[in-house]
Amino acid sequence: MARKGGTDKIKGKAKEMAGKVSGDRQQEMEGQLDQARGEAKKVRGKAEERMQEKRDRT
């Protein structure tokens, strides 16, 4: 199963860097939010995989 959230993290990092370069604090914060969203999806995906593995063993 593919890990989720990677795209959000990459997009967020790019947005954050663009915000830093341009001095746009709001864009920078949106990028950080996108990264956090991506990390949350990643954690959720791992938890779902573990649950599925546990179900498969029973």
Give the arrangement of secondary structure elements:
Elements lengths: L5 H17 L2 H33 L1
Structure summary, number of beta strands: 0
Overall spatial form: rod-shaped
- Count of helical regions: 2
- Structure classification: mainly alpha
Series of H and E elements? HH
N-C termini distance? 19 Å
Residue-averaged pLDDT: 92
Rg for CA atoms: 15 Å
| Largest beta-sheet characterization | none
Residue share in β-strands: under 5%
Explain what this protein looks like in three dimensions.
- With 58 residues, the protein is mainly alpha-helical.
- It is 86% helix and 0% strand.
- The chain contains 2 helices and no strands.
- The longest helix is centred in the last third of the chain and has 33 residues, at 25-57.
- The mean pLDDT is 92.
Q: Which key phrases capture this entry?
A:
single chain; mainly alpha; 86% helix; rod-shaped
